[in-house]
Fold this sequence. Notes:
Elements: H1 4-20, H2 26-33, H3 38-50, E1 54-56, E2 64-66, E3 114-123, E4 128-129, E5 136-140, E6 150-156, E7 170-175, E8 184-189, E9 193-202, E10 205-209, E11 218-220, E12 225-235
Amino acid sequence: MLTKKQSELLRFINERLKETGVPPSFDEMKDALDLASKSGIHRLIIALEERGFIRRLPNRARALEVLRLPESSTPSGQSRGRFSPSVIEGTLGKLRPSAASAAHADDHDPAYNVTIPVMGRIAAGTPVSAIQSRTHTIGLPADMLGNGDHFALEVRGDSMIEAGILDSDTVIIKKQDTAETGDIVVALIDDEEATLKRLRKRGASIALEAANPAYETRIFGPDRVRIQGKLVNLIRKY
C-alpha cells in the first residue's frame, strides 16, 4: 500500500501520460503535490520504482513509464481506526544471532514456535518515505517476544549505534500506539516518514532522539507523530 503522497504522484504521472504522452517535469510534479523541493519528488519516484509501480527509461530525459496502479486507491496512513504499521520496504537475508539475541530464525525448527511478519526496512538515520510492505515471515522463540502482536524490521542507517542498534540489524517491534519517555520506538512522522528513535516527551512536544552525536534531535508537535510500536529485541546477521 502506498503513502498518500506516493499515491498522488503516481496518479498525476499516469494522468499526464494519458493526456499528453509525456511525463511531467520534476517542477510540475513538485507543484502538483505542493512540495517545497524537487528532492522530495526524487525520493517518491525512487520509492515507486522500487515498489514496481513505475520504471525510469534509460538514456531519455523525463522518461517515466507507469507499470501498474495500486489495487486500492486508499493511501496508507489515512485509516486511523486500526493499527497498520507503515514502514520502509525491503527484504532480509538469512538472519543469524548477535550475542544479545537468542538464535537464528528458522521457520522449520519447532523451537521457533512464533511466526511474525517482516514488514521491510526502517530508517535509523534521516527518515525516508514510508510504505507498508510485508515481505515474508520469520520464526522466533516465544521468550524473545512476550505478550502482544509483533513485527520485524531491518535497520538502515547508523543513528542508533550508541544504543547497540547497527545498520542491517533486524529489530523486533511490539505493536502499540503509546510509549513512555526513554522507549525506542518506530515513529511515523506526518504519515509520510518512518524512523527508529528514542522517544522523549517535552511538555506538549515530542522529541525523537538519535543515539549518535552526529544526528540532531528532532522535535515535533504531538499531532505530527504516531507511535507504531516499541523495540523489544533484535537479531544480528553476520
